[in-house]
TrEMBL record:
Name of the featured protein: DUF2808 domain-containing protein
Cross-referenced Pfam families: N_BRCA1_IG (PF16158)
Residues of the Nbr1 FW domain: 31-123
InterPro entries, A to Z: Ig-like_fold (IPR013783), Nbr1_FW (IPR032350)
């Protein structure tokens, strides 16, 4: 021994927790629809979490009630290809087609991001009351 102390120091990088989160940005939805007709709609959401949204089941799902098929579908897919990824901070516009209910009335229209089989997360789109006419 030469009388000196040696100490090993290991740097540990702290990992951020992986958080799924989303914020509503914009939507384009007709306020009046004709019963039984199909309409193109779009909803833009921002990835405000720390995880990438990728091919692993990230979708936009109907609300009020959750998984409702009032609009002919209960899901809008995130990806057009396996290579499409929405990084934290980026926005994604979900463009899809809905079919108005066959019975005239006023119907709720609201959607939220989810990872299929894992969880719903983030803020939903604003609740719209869409008038369906004959």
């Amino acid at each position: 021994m030469d009388g000196t102390w040696k100490q090993a120091v290991t740097a540990v990088e702290k990992q951020r927790p992986l958080v799924r989160n989303a914020a509503f940005v914009a939507q384009s939805v007709p306020s009046v629809m004709q019963a039984g007709k199909s309409y193109a709609v779009s909803i833009t959401m921002r990835n405000t979490g720390t995880t990438n949204w990728g091919w692993e089941g990230y979708k936009l799902g109907s609300q009020v009630p959750a998984d409702s098929t009032i609009w002919g579908t209960g899901r809008a897919t995130l990806n057009t290809s396996p290579s499409e990824i929405v990084l934290p901070g980026q926005t994604k516009t979900f463009a899809f087609t809905v079919t108005a209910p066959s019975t005239p009335g006023t119907y709720p229209f609201q959607w939220r991001v989810l990872q299929e089989g894992v969880e719903w997360f983030g803020t939903a789109s604003p609740l719209l009351q869409v008038s369906v006419v004959q």
